[in-house]
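In this supplementary section we document a worked example of the pipeline. Step one takes a protein sequence of length 388 as its only input; no multiple sequence alignment statistics are reported here. Step two produces a three-dimensional model, which step three serialises into structure tokens for compact storage. The input and output of this example are shown verbatim.
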Amino acid sequence: MTNRALRASAGAAMLVLGMAPEMVAQPLPRVVISGLNSPGRLLSLDSGVVLVTENGTGPNTGRVSAITADGRRATLIDGLPAGLSAPNNDPSGAAALAVRNRTLFIVIGTGDSVLRGPIPGTEIPNPRPSSPLLSSVLALDFDRGLDSSGGGFFFEVTSHTVVASGKSVVLTNPAGETATLRLVIDIPNNIPNPRPDFPENVRTSNPFGLEPADSCGLWLVDASRNLIWRVDICTNTYAAALTFPPYESPLPTGPRLLDAVPTSARSFRGDLLVTFLTGNPFPAGLAEVRRVKPPSGESLVFLGGLHMLVDVLPYRASPDGFFVLEFSQAITTGAPGRVLWFDSVRSAPVVLSDQVIGPTHMAIDPRTGELLVCEFRTGRIVAIPVPR
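The serialised model returned by step three reads:
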């Protein structure tokens, strides 16, 4: 995870609060591929190929890879904006994906746009970030269908400034195919967030998830700003569409209010299902999935009483069923995360796996029908059998 989200300052509601997860036999997840560079998000294509974003290993090493059914990796595009994010130097680069026709939309995360401030928990702007395209959405237009592209494109760092200025660059791969890279939107890297003990403090932006909206729209989840932007890909504009207030902490000590930290949004019957990590110290039982109605922002608890949520996935083969992904069972001890299955919003969760390590995202494998889980910490994609 990039992990701005993990530490971002830190009818009627249908609750499953207090329902203990039902335990089933849990073999270790099958490793589909390993050796990825801090993978973040998955996107299944109709061709059977699965795309994965990789946050990289340092400045401008973000990439998007294509994973075949036999576990081979091929680079779609490399050299994407990236940096090591404060305060823990976690890689932050290519963060999320969406596709429309021949265009792949790529979210770029916060990177190294801010530095650790002089007081614990504070941040200051980085006067020399690795790229002018951090906290942005890019579009890669292919000269042929995405499914038939040979990939192997590279975004030279010298071209980052060109794209940031609003111009497009044409990339050519070793096979002579071309693709055009352009800027859709560029969100300010940070906003003022003064504190009594440090007036210069800022809050970074952290574009973290992407979901198609209407024909011209994308929903862009900002985990640090606690909101969802609506990106208009027809006019290359954006606006805050949904904002989320803090949670009241149930703990007797520590901060009274905790950031919501939205991490994922999924379309569901005209609404959005939004997962919330909640802020540090991530009290057990506070995280939830909410059903949100754009544009009013009206929301109801959909699945509650959970912990450190990073994704929810409605299951097409079972209209009332949902997969839910928890980042960690106990972050202070480094415990693995969990994949939960809900037969419906009224059912108790079944634990499909409690051995996913630093997971960030899920997708259904278009060829095997298994559930794929992206593990940021291990650099792996793992597969889990789906309940039948």
